[in-house]
Amino acid sequence: MAVDYNAEPLLKVEKLKQYFKNGSFVVKAVDDVSFEIYPGETYGLVGESGSGKTTIGRDVIRLLDPTDGKVTFNGKDITGKMDKSTNLELRTRMQMIFQDPMASLNPRKKIGDIIGEGLDIHHTYASADERREKINTLLQKVGLAKEHYDRYPYQFSGGQRQRVGIARALIMNPDLIIADECISALDVSIQAQVVNLMKDIQEETGCAYLFIAHDLSMVKYISDRIGVLHLGRLLETGTTEEIFANPIHPYTVSLLSAIPSPDPYAERARKAVFYDYATSGIDYGKGTLHHISGRHYVYGTDEELSDWMGYE
Amino acid sequence: MPDKILEIKDLDITFKTTAGPVHAIRGVNVDLERGETVAIVGESGSGKSVVMKTAMGILAGNATINGGEIIFRYTDDDGNAQEVDILKKEKRWIRQNVNGRRIAMIFQDPMTSLDPTMTIGNQLIEGMIMHLNLPKDEAKQRALELLKEVGISDPEKRYKQYPHQLSGGMRQRVVIAIAISCYPDLLICDEPTTALDVTIQARILELIKTIQKEHGISVIYITHDLGVVAKVADYVNVMYAGRIVEVGNVEEIFYDPKHPYTWGLLSAMPDLNTNDDRLYTIPGSPPNLLHEVVGDAFAPRNQYALKADWKEQPPMFRVSDTHYAATWLLDERAPRIEIPEELKNRIERMKADHEVGNGSRL
């Protein structure tokens, strides 16, 4: 689906900061991160563990309170104390799919009731029949059957559970779904099923995704744009083509070089580019975001940029 | 003369569970020659870890071995060639002579395989003191050398630290150092990089490769990641629902796969060189081995399944001396079915990139 980049962004994250205090020292999990997501777009957030990608997702949906910065969703500021209508909007229009489908589904609740919990909380049905009908439609939409309504999470396989997670996120017809490593815990052959399902649903409902992952090859498949995170900083962002065809930041280069390939010859010849922040001489504190072309931005100082891009 | 270090023959294992017996391993054969690298690929639940745990004698208590042999050949301390069937040996003997001594294992998650209450150093010398009877200071000397060898800077400092003070990649390096500390003949790596970041993954695999070359160790990889297999393996065993469905060298499996399950696995890997909108998926999910499988276990998910696949388990059909696949499609009576167009194109493209088949070998 083509994304309209001239439209008003659905989600706008500006200078987001999330610090965690641990005794006397402060962990800067997210530091000065800005990006936006447009309606119907998939924004992939990638980086290694500890880069802050999950923290950003949690800040956006307000599972955490950001230390500083501003997050605007559907034109409303959702940082700080929200009024009742903003809160309601956030809780219905934005949903989340978690990494581990076993840990995120209540083992004592029936699948149908797990999916319908949002409906129950927000009283968005007139009769029990209507509720059941809505849930059944969703079960079918995510590739499960009506008969699954009365089963419990343990009776499902990992892939099916993640489908339940997706159905639960979809029940409120959200504009934005935050998918936090939602395929990492699944088998390779099942990962592809879930990714395809997410694409189909986007086609149908026009919802946007914030797709958080560390697996770049899957991110490439699903994302319109990608943001590369490292140590809490957004180092590079751009459309999937821009990032894959012309990675500029050394960290992005190293991430791309690490993608394994199913081709023994290429794989044996491949040398992963190594990136170490401590010895690279790059100071994330000093850089600014530079516009390269189109929607492609890279974070660094002027000298670093000209160095990476290979001109004097 | 071929020198097989490990031969697993017709291994068959059932687990007793509250839901009933689960027939997890249904006749598995794996061969490993000295100095080579074999990968066992399969989804979770296919039984790949169970096979290797059996070889280590560390099966869970509810497992029953119904049959089979695991022949392990090694040179004992007096320099005599020995050949044992691990399944016939008692636990105590395996503990003393095999585990950590001649066969070492690297597990998936370095945080859980290291003891959080012991220093790195103590965990390193533990095995050497037990198996090699080294005095403590000699063991420490060797431990420091090992840490250096696996690429840990400042080994003196790390030696005194605890696992939680190290990053995931560092911890896995320590686990590798422990594994090679007693000069094993065989190293089993159970998803060694799954818990690690992609950037670190390649470096750990390269490390294992270097160590393998230097010490002449044979390695078995258990993994679901075909990218890892492509990088490290000489031979590949594709496992599905407790059976090996295809075996061959790495070229045969990646450039000339025969089993529909292998086709599916290869197709499901995202290809960075195409702009297809949809990923290929294998429909359905693996069978529940609580119920005895009739015919080919993959038949319900296989769009190419023949009638015979539903009735009778296919034997291993020979494709070449090293390449075998268990699918009725290879039977001479079967209709000619070509591999899926998309996969074929991808393989052609890969071959064109490197001109495979001009007698060049990996």
List keywords for this structure.
heterodimer, A: 312 residues, alpha/beta, Rossmann fold, eight-stranded mixed sheet, four-stranded antiparallel sheet, 12 helices, globular, B: 362 residues, 2 domains, 13 helices, 34% helix, disordered C terminus
**Helix segment tally of chain B:** 13
Order of helices and strands of chain A: EEEHEEHEHHHEHEHEEHHHHEEH
The dominant shape of chain A is globular
Q: What is the average of the pLDDT values of chain A?
A: 89
The greatest inter-chain interface is formed by: A-B, 41 and 41 residues
Give the CA-CA distance, first to last residue of chain B. 22 Å
Relevant CATH superfamily of chain A: P-loop containing nucleotide triphosphate hydrolases
Kindly name the structural category of chain B. Answer: alpha/beta
Number of helices of chain A: 12
Tally of individual domains of chain A:
1
Beta strand % of chain A: 15-25%
* Radius of gyration of chain B from CA coordinates: 22 Å
Describe the protein in words:
The complex is a heterodimer of chains A (312) and B (362). Chain A is of the alpha/beta class and 312 residues long. Chain A has 12 helices and 12 strands. In chain A, the strands form 2 sheets. In chain A, strands 6-7-8-3-9-10-12-11 form an 8-stranded mixed β-sheet, sandwiched between helices. In chain A, β7 (176-180), α6 and β8 (208-213) form a beta-alpha-beta unit. Chain B is α/β, with parallel strands linked by helices and 362 residues long. Chain B has 2 domains: 56-221, 3-Layer(aba) Sandwich (Rossmann fold); 239-354, P-loop containing nucleotide triphosphate hydrolases (Rossmann fold, 3-Layer(aba) Sandwich), CATH 3.40.50. Helices cover 34% and strands 23% of the residues of chain B. Chain B has helices at 48-56, 91-97, 110-113, 120-132, 136-149, 155-159, 168-180, 198-215, 226-232, 250-255, 260-268, 307-311, 341-354; strands spanning 4-17, 20-33, 37-41, 63-75, 81-85, 103-106, 186-190, 218-223, 235-240, 243-249, 317-318, 324-325. Chain B starts with a strand and ends in an 8-residue tail after the last helix. Residues 357-362 of chain B have low confidence and may be disordered. The A-B interface holds A 48-49, 157-160, 187-193, 195-196, 199, 214-218, 220-221, 244, 254-255, 258-268, 270, 272, 274-275 and B 43-44, 168, 197-203, 206, 224-228, 230-231, 250-251, 254, 264-266, 268-272, 277-282, 285, 350, 353-354, 356, 362.
